[in-house]
Design goal:
188 residues, mainly alpha, 36% helix, 0% strand, disordered N terminus
């Protein structure tokens, strides 16, 4: 988003046949900012409030996250921690799939928050301050829930090998066209 807000400082290549208009106008930047925040909303996981959900084709997902089997280490039976019941709903899907990674999410939320601080006036002018705060809050709430440690200080709640090695088409995660997965290409 920093790039979007600083485009006015770019040097124009006048040798180009199709030159970019130097003044796109504030409305174009406001729309780009709004659309970038909608991207995050489209990748939300959890119980989506229908009253405020701005993505009409998205519905709830991952409502059992943390209530199914949780493994510490690899996905072998000896590492299954039965009886653990955690509410790990929320957060954002990563890379258009069904995985939620803590470190990339924390980095993303940090960048969004710092961008909001550095360019608060731009967010206010674009009418996107509430949407930005909502985006950061949604991810932060998930990270706070996911920060559960066992007696050894382990906090990882899935096996990357198991999840990424599972050959399941995204369509199998969303059989209802009313509430498809965040992978837009599923119904193309």
């Amino acid at each position: 988003m920093l790039v979007l807000l600083n485009l006015r400082h770019r040097r124009q290549d006048t040798s180009s046949v199709a030159s970019i208009d130097s003044d796109l106008g504030p409305a174009a930047y406001e729309k780009a900012l709004a659309m970038s925040l909608l991207f995050y909303e489209a990748n939300r996981s959890g119980d989506l409030d229908e009253a405020i959900n701005r993505i009409p084709w998205r519905g709830d997902s991952g409502l059992n996250d943390g209530n199914d089997g949780i493994y510490f280490g690899d996905a072998s039976a000896s590492n299954l921690q039965a009886g653990l019941r955690l509410d790990l709903t929320g957060g954002y899907h990563d890379a258009g799939d069904h995985v939620k990674f803590g470190l990339p999410l924390a980095s993303t939320l940090s960048s969004l928050a710092w961008g909001g601080l550095a360019f608060s006036e731009g967010y206010a002018i674009a009418g996107q301050t509430d949407e930005l705060l909502d985006t950061v809050r949604w991810g932060t709430d998930y990270l706070l829930k996911a920060h559960q440690m066992d007696s050894e200080g382990k906090t990882e709640f899935s096996s990357f090998k198991l999840v990424m090695g599972t050959l399941i088409m995204p369509l199998e995660f969303a059989r209802e066209p009313i509430h498809p997965s965040p992978c837009v290409g599923n119904y193309g």
